[in-house]
Amino acid sequence: MYISAKQIDNVCEYIRNHWDESVHDDRKTPPPENIIPLPVPHTVPCLHGFFRLFFYWDTYFTNAGLLAQGRLDLARGNCEAMAWLIERNGFVPNSTFRSDHNRSQPPYFSLMVREAYEISGDRDWLARMASMVKKEYQFWMTARFSPLGLNRHGEHAERVFLLRFYNGLLHDRLGLPLDIADSGKIELSRRYLAEAETGWDFNPRFEQRCPDFCPVDLNTNLWRYEKDLAFYARETGSGDAGYYEDAAARRQELMRRYMWDESRGLFMDYDYVNMKTGTTASLASFHPLWLGLANDREAGMTAAGLPLFEHAHGLAVCEKIESPVYYQWGYPNGWPPLTMTVVQSLMHSGRTDDARRIAGKYIAWATRYFESTGQLWEKFDAVTGTLAGGEYEAQPMMGWSAGVFVKMAEIWQSGNNSKQ
Description:
- The chain is mainly α.
- 52% of the residues lie in helices and 5% in strands.
- A three-stranded antiparallel sheet has the order 3-6-7.
- Strand 6 (270-271) and strand 7 (276-277) form a beta hairpin.
């Protein structure tokens, strides 16, 4: 489907004009009792849909669009909200739902801080935020550490919540049976709640045993935290840059040892309980390219795996596998944040034609649905181009859908301009 520059500009202008509508100020309009009020204005993913509260990893991709459109004020406000949550909890919860404070989501706070700092140059602000990055890093290095020296996902929920989580969400969304013992429900809830911490709830990557795996994307993000913390130390003069550089080097070596699968030419999640790589390839394999951990050979082999995921309307988050379960974070569904990380990883590794082709597919899909519904949408079917299915209906969304559209439009339009 051909999309004109004017059509793209219309969507970008809609986004620019609606950022402020996504801002909540809990001091002026207190949220319901089941939501933790934040002391600073912050953005939420949905203007009209279900997700009208603060979510963790969503906000990184929102910030990408905010910064691209000159809204440093809102991007820094989102960082301040996360810093407050870290100071209060020791980590960033999944969301500000009170019931979500028994787990986190993939760590993106440091990436948000660095990108805002590189625009503002405010060292005093950086020093304050860096102290919270360190605090969050310690959460991951203690509460979510594996015997391999790499990190995993988990949870810290109480028995009552675990039973409620099983009897409600897992039964409703995945159809798990109710006629099993409470001990079985609790064990399964722990596994799936850890999977919810990945942000990919739910998916085939971890064989329904998420706590047994060290994920590629989580460990790549924490490698980036270690590199960022070294950078912050040099910028602020804290003197501990060497410690974090050494930690990053150790993690990089461990990831190559355990996660690089030469036969597949991909970084794969590692099942440390059974000491083997996972069997389902996903777009998480591109994370080491995106954040700079992969070397040129690894980047080339990973990029060669693109056909596993690319379809007529964009990227499915996982390769196609035989499965009795339909996962919303599996084939054939595509999600904006993974579209952005893959496209940017291809740009970083010099594969600009691939990057612009995939960016164009996302823009075409999003523009078509924007023009027919007046909304941007949360997830899509990469094969059919329809709204994606899964455990719940796709939601109309600003949030990461808007942020990713803005970033993909930059890449798409830069390619077109260079041909003129």
